[in-house]
Amino acid sequence: MWFAYIDESKDDGKFYIYTALIIKGERWADTFDKVKDFRRQLRDEHGIYIAQELHAWKFAAGKGQIADHPILKPERAEIFRKVLRFIADSKRFNVMSSCNTNEQYAFERLMNRLNRTAQAKRENVLLFFDQGEEAEMTRRIRRMRVHNPIPSRFGSWLGTNKAMKSIPLSNCVEDPIFKDSKASFFIQLADFCAYALLRMERPIASRTALGYDSMYEELKPCSRRITNVADPRGMGIIR
Predict the structure, then answer these.
(1) Could you give the CA distance from residue 129 to residue 190 in angstroms, rounded to a whole number?
(2) What gap in Å lies between CA 68 and CA 193, rounded to an integer?
(3) Of the candidates 48, 3, 9, which has an alpha carbon nearest to the alpha carbon of residue 186?
(4) What pLDDT, on a 0 to 100 scale, did the predictor assign at position 4?
(5) Is residue 79 a contact partner of residue 211, using CB atoms and an 8 Å limit?
(6) Which of 66, 86, 128, 170 is the most exposed, fewest CB within 10 Å of its CB?
(7) Cβ–Cβ contacts within 10 Å for residue 12, how many?
(8) Are 203 and 212 in contact (CB under 8 A)?
(9) pTM value?
(10) Please, what are the averages of pLDDT over each run of 10 residues along the chain (239 residues)?
(11) Residue 11 burial by CB count (10 A; 0-12/13-18/19+): exposed, middle or buried?
């Protein structure tokens, strides 16, 4: 069983990122301990409160009292990159991301690739989302589990000669589970990944000056490159 923690980042409602942070269920407890140890490290090195929610865009913008002293933007950028390196170096996670100007398209593409990858590995997936859109996300997943039309890359599906084929989310089990991001280290990590991709795909000068436009590349070791071998960045980003 895989646990997939999914979060979104967006740019003024014109560009959308969805990222899934994937953990093997049998390694969840060990992985959680590793994350807690990492948060203790951030406390010891930077003074960041262990129980403090780290919300990516607020963190990068210098907002919020996250420590026992002010942490300025350059140090926050250093910490942000450190978080992504932890995800990659811990060898506990896989990261899968999609991006598009159409929010629903980005969402459905990620779900389809996640389901297809799970099928290939003979795994099931339990989905975790941040709280806030429970009804809408549950409705989408339930619909895709029953009827999920997908266009053929080649114009028509073999054996049917039709442009569309329904491929339900058969390996995404149960309704999604919604977690308060304040109480979920994993949702917070997924948020950092999504924001890093947003700033790489849609850079802004103030963040690029601090290196945010290249931070997503830290995740190359744990990216599911097979999800899109045509990705020009070589990281499997679904487009």
Answers:
(1) 10
(2) 25
(3) 3
(4) 99
(5) no
(6) 170
(7) 6
(8) yes
(9) 0.95
(10) 98 94 98 98 98 97 96 98 98 97 97 96 98 97 93 74 84 97 98 99 98 98 91 95
(11) middle
